[in-house]
Amino acid sequence: MELREDDIRKHYPAATALLNGFEHAPRIAKAVESAIERSPGVSTGRRFRSTTPGLVTRRTVRADGIHLVERIEASDDGDALVSPPQATTQQAIRRAIAIALAVAESYAEQTPLADLKRANLAGDLPAARKTEFSELLTAEALITSHTFGNALAYLMSSHLGETTVDIGEIEEVLTDNGQLALHGALWELDQTLAKHAPDDAHLIAATSAYAEQLMDKAALRAQSAGHLAPFQNAAWHIEADDLTIRGFEPASKAKSTTLTMTFKKPNEVVGNHIAKYQAMKLAKMVMAYDFDRRLNPFAELGGFIFTFMGDGKPGTGKTTLIQMMAGLINDYCQNAGYPFRYQNLSTDNIDSYQGKSGQNAKAFIHTIIDPSVIGFGTIDDIDQLAGKRGDRQSSAGQLEITAVLMESFAGANTVVRGNCTFGMFSNYPENVDDALRQRAGARFLVDGPQTREDYIDILHLLMGRNHDIPLGEHEAYAAQEIKKAVAASFESHSRPHEEALLQVYERIQGQIGQMDTIAKMGAYLKAIQQADERFTGRAIKNITDAVKVRAMDFELPDEWMEKPDLFLFRDYDIKKAMIEDLRQPITVEMVMQEINRYADSEFRYADKSDEVAIENAIRQMGRMEEAKRRYLEGKDQGANP
């Protein structure tokens, strides 16, 4: 729903009054001690201790006047004029207070809280409803705190620089009622600025850091509070700020990342037909995301690829594939006016400090899955970044990254909205942890140019135009015609490619005949599992997801991307219906091809992994044998000088 500007601005006088000054006695946190010099032996005074029975243990702290305007203006080293960062901070705090009060008021009107407040004010609150009233006030306090922090963080985000501030943990998060919650939040913000805002740069950073902390604290408390469904199930949009308050979910500005990348066109990717085709399809799929519904029709209908893995030998075109896909999505987003974020998780994110690598990986995930943007995240050379559990050569930082990626790609809290996709690429996928590798819903074999025509095409492409060498008897790029090449590639998977899997296939086919029913294909899957115990239920899910992708084996028309009004800007239900009209029926051939494609990749990884392990064991045994021989020779020489 739209939060009207009038409903926000009517709270400006109250917000301004809070900025100018109010009284608050801290209940949980401790005030910053003022450094006042005193002569030796002079008493600093004693805290008053009540002698009234029952009040002895209650903290009695003097209520100090909080003047945020003065505190903010004190960060300029005595300048008589208010600086732009100070004015920005004051405006943001006032605006955030007004938004929090407006949202809390809207919540009170949607629940019995408004009526109960009026009854309590009149002195006729029923005794039977006092508990409900108290719980609703707690909910209002949490909503007020979180909305204030959320709006303040959002409004300050565009003013952040490189300065960072560690403000520690905040404590004065009060849940008595909305007004007291605001007093506690503003009191602690004042204390934070007193400690961490000596200049304007630190003022912006400390204010933003406090807002983030307040959000986290309020969201954590809300997990055990009641009566919050009306707030969590609703959304308030503020047109002037382009801010959407959506429950306890942090808002963020939908900003694109600046890409400095050499984009590649699809015709500049030679070979890799299936990988190229599916990357092109996925680039269009992600554009079908609906920002209002926060869902992609492909994610609802099935067939959206959230994670995929591309593997192949060095130099076969994995980086080129990334450049092609990022370039396509970037162009589509620019045409539609959508914010686009691309980020690569690199070795720079591995840190020697405990826990920091995991935090870096989590920040990478959050940047890409932000539901207000279209995202594409890559993990190139994932075997170097994510450690294999049980491998003594994996560092603690690598294992932290593995844990974060596993939880983010298919954890209990993973929500696939369809606004982003993650690609994992490796020359040595056998070195990737089995559980993490199985979280890749699709497999792209990046094997580069294969045929004579492929090699002619890639030579012709890379030679450029600064030569007079004739092309000869060859039609340039005819072999790269995507539909023809992909059909042949899929057809080739009607039978397995890996020798070990082919033996299983032929044995089962000899026993039960042509695999053309669910029961027969299930028997084949069980036989694969008996041959490789890593072929689990997750593998079956990945196969069925790939089959659904094949059912969506159509390419959204280029015209839909070039003219957003035809598809991208349509209503969610209309987009879903348009996609359903293009969907194809699932066939036995599709299912068998996808079973063989996926199982081929697992057997390929397993064979490589086992072979590497055997080679390492042989090498170690050879070393021990040589060490033993040299040891005995040295012992004999010592005995016979």
From TrEMBL:
One of its GO terms (molecular function) is ATP binding. Residues 312-445 form the ATPase AAA-type core domain. It comes from the Bacteria. Transmembrane segments: none annotated. This is ATPase family associated with various cellular activities (AAA).
